[in-house]
């Protein structure tokens, strides 16, 4: 999505950055894992196909993708950004007739980063971005029935069971963004220009940040 092609979202333990060609080789190695293919319902791609997919995601109006970075590793100017990658998070606008409906998908690909609360932080950040910047009013999450940890995490965000497919071994959870959700869950989001932040990191400085209120996109 072009909207976030120069957007960095700054969290406590993670930084979310646009998915660029620099990230593709490591992402491709992740998706060679049969376990991740199963969790994400994905088919293995060649490296060239992965580059094509990255270019497509940057241009499509119905997909918003961020790469999750370890903020503390990324703070070291000597660290390559590819080496700081933890996973990715996506918002898919699945229904042209209902543009305020979005599917939320998160993947913590590096095993050493699982179980540390990063998924919860990233989910909160991405929901806030979706509401503030994309006008999202309802989120859905489709999760494999075997992925008990992810199901439990989304339920902590007050997602409710919408449907279960025994054929696809998948549960669909849904959450409507009401005033209470805005007030108690989303809060504000710190946003920076990605290219300035990346170049500044390499030079040992950070770009000026902007705090984006989630109420920005309210009717």
Task: Summarize the helices and strands and which ones pair or pack.
Blueprint: E1 7-10, E2 14-18, H1 24-30, H2 34-40, H3 47-59, E3 63-70, H4 71-74, E4 85-92, E5 101-108, H5 118-134, E6 138-144, H6 148-156, E7 160-165, E8 170-176, H7 179-186, E9 188-193, H8 194-202, E10 210-213
Give a written overview of the molecule:
The structure is a single chain. The chain contains eight helices and ten strands. By secondary structure, it is of the alpha+beta class.
Offer a few descriptive terms.
219 residues, alpha+beta, 10-stranded mixed beta sheet, 34% helix
> How large, in whole angstroms, is the Cα Rg?
17 Å
How is the quaternary structure best described? single chain
Helix content: 25-40%
**Biggest sheet descriptor:** 10 strands, mixed
Question: Counting H and I runs of at least 4 residues, what is the number of helices?
Answer: 8
The rounded distance between the terminal residues' Cα atoms is: 23 Å
Structural class: alpha+beta
User: Which spans have pLDDT < 50 for at least 5 consecutive residues?
Assistant: none
DSSP strand count: 10
The strand order across the widest sheet is 7-8-6-5-4-3-2-1-9-10
Listing every helix as H and every strand as E from the N terminus to the C terminus, the arrangement reads EEHHHEHEEHEHEEHEHE
Compute the average pLDDT: 90
Choose one word for the global shape.
globular
Beta-strand level of the residues, as a percent range? Answer: 25-35%
